[in-house]
Amino acid sequence: MKSLVVLVAGLTAAILNGCATVPQPQSARRYIDVNEWPDVPCKDDLTESKYYLLDRREVQRELDLKALQTIALAKAFNTPYKNMPGYTELRMQDQALSEEEKLQQRSRREAELKAITTKWLESQLAAILNSRQKTRLEGLVLQMKGPRAILVVPGVAESLNLTQDQRTNIQGVVDEYLKDLEPYLVRYGHTMLQMSRRSQTIDEFVKEQDALLVVITEIFKARDEDIVSILTPAQREQWDKLQGRPVPVSWPPHAFFYTPFMEEKGAPANESSGSRELRR
After folding, report:
1. Which of 124, 157, 175, 235 is least surrounded, with the fewest CB atoms within 10 Å of its CB?
2. First-residue to last-residue Cα distance in the chain
3. Are the C-beta atoms of residues 138 and 123 closer than 8 Å to each other?
4. How many Cβ atoms are within 10 Å of 52's Cβ, its own excluded?
5. Tens of pLDDT along the chain (280 residues)?
6. Are 86 and 34 in contact (CB under 8 A)?
7. How far apart are CA 214 and CA 42, in angstroms?
């Protein structure tokens, strides 16, 4: 494993000297991902990740999405809960519960709502995209997640014929790097909150976020390399094949809380926007 102390020290010096800049994208890899956050209890939401990708113009071009498809995807993602099959029944079940029972069963209720949302979003993808677009999108999800996808995307480890030792070693790399990433990820999220509360100026916010983004990205790149180094040459070749051609995607650098299709007609989200609740 690379010396993260040396890596971070070098990056910090470069940032302080004004020599470090936010790296240009080389693929669809997204380094700021809520599923990588320390203490986040949720599993990777692969369905929602597809909509994040489909929101980006580079992906729309790669899939050759038509205007009507993009508009339909935006409409699907922004569908109110009440219009999703199964939601009314779930609400009726909740009405029979006392407030105390609702609190006690909160995890179950959230899981059921998530299942309803996922089923709806997947059904819309199946209806809107053609078979070629669906297949290509699956490869772009792997690019977006990076080599950690080997463990979190169903079927990938089996496709690579990973041994149990390899799975254990990859998980060990992920766990080890998270210890070093945690303070930077936490600080990144903290500055987002500071900006939302207007406790920082815009210039202060951008400068600190740029610095943190550079460090976080380089640490994730080092982790990605360490994970790939565990694979055999044949497995690496298969991993590259599963991802397909790299498609550079420009993710909003300072809009961690943004959601896909924030514009009403399906245009990519405004990079300066924060998130908002889309479903009422």
Report:
1. 175
2. 46
3. no
4. 23
5. 555 555 555 555 555 555 556 667 788 898 777 666 655 544 668 999 999 999 999 999 999 999 999 999 999 999 999 999 999 988 888 787 777 777 777 788 888 999 999 999 999 999 999 999 999 999 999 999 999 999 999 999 999 999 999 999 999 999 999 888 888 887 777 766 665 556 667 777 777 778 888 888 888 999 999 999 999 999 999 999 999 999 999 988 766 567 899 764 444 443 433 333 334 3
6. no
7. 26
Beta-carbon neighbour count of residue 64 at 10 Å? 11
Cβ proximity of 38 and 185 under 8 Å: yes
According to DSSP H, which parts of the chain are helical? 4-16, 46-54, 57-62, 67-77, 87-95, 99-104, 106-128, 131-145, 149-152, 156-159, 164-196, 202-228, 233-243
For residue 169, give both structure tokens: 């070693």
How far apart, in whole angstroms, are the C-alpha atoms of residue 6 and residue 50? 35
Q: Which two tokens stand for residue 182?
A: 């945690």
Taking the C-alpha atoms of residue 47 and residue 69, their distance in angstroms, rounded to an integer, is 17
What does the block give as tokens for 152?
């979190």
Q: At which residue do the structure tokens 């290509």 appear? A: 136
Q: Which two tokens stand for residue 279?
A: 């479903």
Task: Name the token pair of 232.
Answer: 């055999």
Question: If you search the block for the tokens 């936010």, which residue do you land on?
Answer: 22
Instruction: Specify whether the CB–CB gap between 128 and 207 falls below 8 A.
Output: no
